[in-house]
Design a protein that fits this description.
By secondary structure, the protein is mostly beta strands. The protein contains 3 helices and 10 strands, in the order αβββαββββββαβ. The protein has an 8-stranded antiparallel beta barrel with strand order 1-2-3-4-5-8-9-10. Strands 6-7 form a two-stranded antiparallel sheet. The radius of gyration is 25 Å and the shape is elongated. It starts with a helix and ends in a 12-residue tail after the last strand.
């Protein structure tokens, strides 16, 4: 009888260990890496050195179980591009450039392809994918002969837009619990935004009568006029059929906030 009782207690303890392990703990961390932009001034290049900028962030992850987790992040970076760096004749002639700070609040759900648990040997590594919803703030400016001008107040296409927008992040990465406390991760996330004005460029040059002064000068900086009436007014300036994108490739280090490995709290006692 004693043997049966001991076996039952042992089985119950093992079950508690599985249920009360690190799979439901929090992870607080920092991230760093690079970010870049894709849009009217950089339609195609995903990995172009001329577009790279540093990015930094803070992250908080909640593990629900060995397969799913929720992560919220605060990220900062810079996005920029210039037509002069393009091989497109249209872009080189358009002659626009922009730069914007990026402040992002990112919220994603992660799916681990392998059972992941920082406290269980054999389950401390997993690739993962993620998807979610972000809010971000941007403020495009342009450099003209060393002078910096904020573009949103100037309405260079005759339209107003908000500097606060949302994006849909998705991507993949991997996480590795180096110890039961420290977790390393790396991921690549693309952001499909719901604005076409990260770069202050979207549709057509407005009618000249709609702009004046600095707005008019910064709207059309073309090297040569190519419109049917000898000007660019009313002709294509950007591509309004597509929204802007940006991407982050980051490395992260987090500390698990929870009971120590092998503690009474870990096994639910």
């Amino acid at each position: 009888m004693k043997t049966i009782v001991l076996i039952l207690i042992s089985l119950y303890s093992v079950q508690l260990l599985a249920q009360k392990s690190g799979q439901r703990d929090w992870e607080l961390g920092v991230t760093a890496g690079m970010c870049w932009y894709n849009g009217d001034l950089n339609p195609n290049k995903l990995f172009g050195r001329e577009y790279y900028h540093e990015t930094f962030g803070l992250s908080l992850r909640k593990n629900f179980n060995q397969r799913f987790a929720f992560r919220t992040q605060l990220n900062y970076g810079t996005l920029s591009a210039a037509d002069e760096a393009s091989t497109s004749e249209f872009q080189v002639n358009r002659n626009l450039n922009f730069s914007t700070p990026l402040y992002e609040w990112a919220n994603t759900i992660e799916f681990n392809f392998l059972p992941y648990d920082a406290l269980l040997n054999g389950k401390r590594f997993s690739p993962y994918s993620f998807i979610g919803l972000n809010m971000f703030w941007f403020n495009p400016s342009t450099n003209v002969e060393g002078n910096i001008y904020e573009l949103q107040p100037l309405a260079t296409e005759g339209k107003s837009y908000s500097r606060l927008s949302v994006s849909m992040p998705f991507g993949f990465g991997f996480k590795w619990a180096v110890t039961d406390r420290f977790i390393f991760n790396a991921d690549w996330g693309m952001r499909r935004t719901f604005t076409d004005y990260l770069d202050d460029t979207s549709g057509s040059y407005p009618n000249q009568s709609e702009l004046e002064g600095l707005s008019e000068n910064l709207s059309d900086r073309s090297l040569a006029q190519s419109g049917p009436n000898g000007t660019n007014w009313g002709t294509q300036r950007g591509n309004s059929q597509t929204k802007d994108w940006y991407s982050l490739v980051t490395l992260g280090l987090a500390i698990r906030i929870g009971p120590k490995k092998g503690s009474c709290k870990q096994i639910g006692i």
